[in-house]
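=== RUN LOG ===
request id: a7f3
mode: sequence -> structure
chains: 1
length: 248
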Amino acid sequence: MPALAITEELGRLETFFSDVIYPVWPLWLALFAAGLVSAVILSYRLGWHRIALQHRLLTSVSMALILAISVPVGWYTISPLVDRDTVCEASPIPGAGSGSDKCDDVAVAATMPPSATPADAPAASETAAPTAEPTEAPTFEAAVVRQGEWVSGDDFHFANGKALLIETEPGKYTLRVEEFSVRNGPDVFVLLSPSNGYQSDALNLGGLKGTDGAFNYDIPAGADISLYKSAIIWCRQFDVLFGHAELM
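=== RESULT ===
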C-alpha cells in the first residue's frame, strides 16, 4: 500500500478516535473491560488454557509478538495524553511578563529595549563656538499588532491560550503564544494560514516547541502577514487540525 494511502487511513482512524471514542471514553473503557473479562472466562471454560500449557513454545512466541506490536502502538496512542513539555521564552515586548502561569517560577532571559551608545565627543576648546545638543533618534518599541484566542480543533485536540502577532522591528514580526496549552501529538507544526484551517500555501513557522507555556516563532523576513488570517496547529502526519487562532 502506498505511503500516502497508509497516512490517509491512519488519519481516518485518528479522526474516528477523536470524534467517536474519546467523547464517551468511559463507556468504551467499560465495554473493553467487560469484553476482556468475558473472553478470559470463555477461554477458560473451553479449556484453551490447557492447550496453551501444552504448547508453551508457540504460546510464548505468540505472546511476544503481541506485546512487540501492542506496546509500541499503545504507547504511541496514549503518550500524548501524559507526555507534556512546558517551554518558557521571554516576550519581545520589554516588561510584558512571563506570559504564562506555568512560567512564573521559571527564569527566562530578559528582553531589553534597544539603546544607542553615543560616540565620544571631541574635547571642546575654550574658544570653540557653542554647538547644539545632539538629538537621539526615536527608538522603535515592539508592540502587538494583531491577536486572537486559540480555538480547539475538537474535544480531543484541544488548544487554549492566546496568539500574539508582534512587530519587533519595522517590518519584522514574531508570533508568540501565551497561557498556552495544547494536546500533544506526532509531527505537529505551527503555521500561519490564509484561513482558519490548513491550506497548501500556509506558512510553516516550525515544529511545536512545547505543549504548555509561552514561546515565540520568528516570521521569515519579507513575509506578507496581511495574507494570513490565523495561526494554526497542524498534525502533518495525520492531516489533523489541533487548533486555530484567528488574528484580528
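=== NOTES ===
The first strand starts at residue 86 and ends at 88.
Residues 1-7, 110-125 have pLDDT under 50 and may be disordered.
=== END ===
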